[in-house]
Prior knowledge:
By secondary structure, the protein is mostly beta strands. It has helices at 116-125, 176-179, 236-239, and strands at 46-47, 51-53, 61-64, 71-75, 84-85, 138-142, 153-157, 171-175, 190-196, 203-211, 217-225, 257-262, 277-282, 288-292.
Amino acid sequence: MGRRAVAWWLALGCLAACGCTGGSQEPFDPAAACEAGRPDDLSSCFIGDDFADCDGIGDPAFACSPDGDDCRWFVGGCAPSGLVVSACPPDDVCCSDGWPFPHDTFASQDFPHGDFHVGLQLYSLGPLPWDAERGARIEVQLDPTLEPLASSSAECTDVPEDPYYYFCEEGVVRLVGATLGGTVQLDDTVSLSVETAGGTASNGLLVEVLPDGTGGHVARACIHPWNDAGDGEPMCPAYFDGIDPATVDPARDCAVSGVVRLSDIPERGGSIDGLAGRLELTFADGLHVTGGF
């Protein structure tokens, strides 16, 4: 996914009449969910890997940067003024003629159909909203005595026969910020990517450490699908065809138990240099993942 641009120009979402569900013919107003008005950028919001919380007062909303390279769900529906906000409801994210936005909203010279980058992220995010609570059931332990490993690794045991967990093949664990060459924490949550040594291939595992609301932390570890194939045609209709997003989310399975140990939990802007971690995760189908960095 593209990382977090925070200086985006203003663009509006679609009208209800453009194919989105719902009977109202009034123009969609992306500011309606922002009690104090849309923020200028993400700097005042709580930023997670796949979501942000800008103190919205409405339903969750899906929104993207104007280039379509950074999409996420917004808790409460309030998104900064630089984002293109979908008018689709959270239980029908592809309501606009099989897509979250009017087609060609993100048209570019490279991808004339315009929605390729958005499609890649929808493939990964799935059709249901993300927030700080979904799938967050993994214990987090702070252990300042942990030392970084000479080389990171991830191992899988009790792997199901279904060839679904590609990250089990010569797996490694990487800090998302460090992968991008950063030396500081980029968001308000600490994200670890479990992937093949050569990079994410089809399915990776994203581990995200989040505040638990009581002064502590909790984590989620969820499958992170990836597909860079295609010719720019939207993926949403094909990928979600026949799926009821209200009851099934095909995009991510999350670990049901486990523990994540970190030597520190840096806040946004804090140093990630020398950060060490270990993880033990168990999925509902019996898969067991251990790793460290």
